[in-house]
Design brief:
alpha+beta; five-stranded antiparallel β-sheet; five-stranded mixed β-sheet
Length: 290
């Protein structure tokens, strides 16, 4: 049996006892930091499991048809049956006297058919990838024509977020970013700088032309080899130097894409604190900023 302690909006402690009716369907409790990093709830149940709960007097859980049911005799006790649902399950905690929400119980429903953090998430990534491949399959005997409608948005922002998250969470994206950071495309750019005449190395036609045209000048020392040829020299001359830069069209495009992904994540900042979507978006936002 696990006892979950929460704080209500009125500052009161609310305890919920949760027990499985089967030895196979345990209540798993993970570390809070681990749960935050994975955007999961700390208290985790099994898909298809059957659990009984009892909450402190004065409170009850909001019923969810087919998932959360309260006893007809006493709303303090009841059952939680996740069925085939997988993911984070938020359950509102209501005060008996006012029927108002005062807190929320968050449970993670883990898949029992696959490894929840690896195989299950990989399956979601592959679904997104395969659905795109089905539409654009190169070996198809027919041709599909795709056009971009810049005035029409996706049905929901979360559809775009879920697709982007499946891409960013993939191993291919991680490898691609590592390769870009370790060896970005570069190019040489030429910059014109002012240098003292003493610091100039390697004369060319443009530099020699400034020997005669420059207005700010100093007298040529009598012991200098050019004294008999030119009586004054410019104090400073403009020379071209070459520098390696990563400011290339390829890198600018990558930065543009990442900034757009980041902007989409920030669209969920207005959501209720603690919601799964907000937690996922915050973690993804921090990863993109890094």
């Amino acid at each position: 049996m696990e006892t979950i302690e929460l704080i209500s909006t009125e500052g009161e402690d609310v305890r919920i006892k949760l027990v499985s009716t089967s030895s196979q369907d345990v209540v798993l409790v993970i570390d809070e930091a681990d749960a935050l990093a994975e955007a999961e709830a700390m208290y985790q149940l099994s898909e298809g499991g059957n659990y009984e709960f009892e909450i402190d007097k004065g409170y009850y859980l909001r019923e969810i048809p087919g998932v959360v049911s309260n006893s007809k005799l006493n709303r303090q006790i009841g059952r939680i049956t996740p069925n085939i649902y997988v993911g984070t399950l938020p359950i509102a905690i209501l005060k008996t006297s006012t029927n108002e929400k005062v807190s929320e119980l968050r449970l993670e429903i883990r898949s029992i058919k696959t490894s929840y953090r690896e195989d299950y998430r990989r399956m979601l990534e592959e679904i997104a990838e395969k659905c795109t491949d089905l539409l654009m399959q190169h070996s198809s005997p027919v041709v599909q024509t795709f056009t971009v409608d810049l005035e029409k948005d996706s049905e929901t922002a979360y559809q775009r977020f879920a697709f982007i998250k499946s891409v960013i969470d993939s191993q291919e994206f991680e490898s691609a970013v590592h390769k870009i950071l370790s060896g970005p495309t570069t190019k040489w750019k030429q910059t014109i700088v002012d240098k003292p005449i003493q610091a100039v190395r390697g004369l060319n036609r443009k530099t020699i032309r400034q020997f005669a045209s420059s207005s700010q000048r100093v007298k040529t020392p009598p012991d200098h080899s050019l004294y008999n040829i030119i009586k004054s020299l410019p104090e400073r001359v403009q020379v071209a130097i070459k520098e390696e830069t990563v400011d290339t069209p390829e890198n600018r495009f990558i930065k543009f894409a990442l900034e757009n992904f980041l902007r989409l994540c920030s669209d969920f900042s207005h959501l209720e604190q603690g919601s799964r979507i907000k937690t996922e978006a915050t973690l993804l936002e921090e990863r993109l900023e890094r």
